[in-house]
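Bumping with the actual sequence this time:
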Amino acid sequence: MLTSTIFQKRSCRPGSIPSPKGGKHYQYVYGFDSGLTLETTPLDSQRATRGQSLINIPGSVWGSLDKEERNCLITDIRFWPGAFRCTRWDPQITVLKSPIDVAQVVADVQAGKLWAGGFSQQNPYGRTKADGSWVSPPTQYFGSPESNIRLRVYDHGAMHGWEEASFRVEVQIRKRYADDHFRRMAARCMEQREAGHYSLTRRKDQ
């Protein structure tokens, strides 16, 4: 199964499981070189998460897969025996050589020229100099930190030391909204998997 293959992508002994670390919510956290983590708590634990496990799959893992592998990973997880729900999903689009940068987005939002539909509040985040210019590329948020759906626009490359600037639009979806989105996507992926063609694009009837 594809998920098992990802777990085993580690430079230590082939097929071995790395030693776990202690976690905040789960008792054990297993980290893998791919960036994927598995958090779990045994049934005999006194923690509220006893008998549960959590898989965190970062963008680096998704980016390393082709569309067929991504499709299989989504459906494998969704229909995995014992799978309960998706608690967070962060879809994003990243543009290199963008004609506009994040600072311009922030300026347009503050001037009332730009807004993200469906949101009632916004706030820019970042450090500024005495003249009001940004020390580093800022982040523009729409929605509150407590919201189950939050949008942010930022320079992903600047956060990771890229030589080339990047323009990323990312939606942070949590709780029921994340699970509803994941279930719809998994159902569509299963239809495509059974039909033998793979694509994560939206169907015309949706």
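The tokens above came from a reply further down the thread. The radius of gyration is 20 Å.
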